Predict the structure of GrpB family protein.
Amino acid sequence: MKVEVVPHDSTWHSKFEEESKDVALILGENVVAIHHIGSTAIPNIYAKPIIDLLIEVENITKVDNCILGMEALGYEAMGEFGIPGRRFFRKDNETGTRTHHVHTFKAKSSEVERHLAFRDYMIAHPEDAQKYSELKCKLGKHYPKDIIGYMDGKDGFLNLTRLEVA
């Protein structure tokens, strides 16, 4: 997968809003809340241009009944995809470029709290957000075709931030 890190785009929030409405219709009454997470949710920083939606649901196993609906929206169901208790979906556009990730968890789970705490910390601490942005740019240039290397390169920063958030 190509690693592309781009300047903040003011349309990312509206793209999140549009997509969240469509996904909410598919997941129905099981949805408790939908949050914009990831770097596209943090103002003024560079990011991979992929909109991350975090969806809290009452019953995580009921999400499995919505796979066909998610596929109709263009999503690929990935199961837990490395995080126990998650239902993960990814979406590409017609050219094969990744556009959205949907991370679905049981409401109030520790994964929900972790993702929201990181986002909220970065928004409240713009100087740390800029350090993160600079790191992402460097990693994007160093690992332009290695998403694993890119992600591994962010781990140290993310782990330090988790300690500050806690």
User: Anything to note?
Assistant: Residues 12-165 form a domain with the Beta Polymerase; domain 2 fold (CATH 3.30.460.10). The two ends are 32 Å apart (CA to CA). Helices lie at 12-27, 67-72, 110-124, 126-142, 147-165.
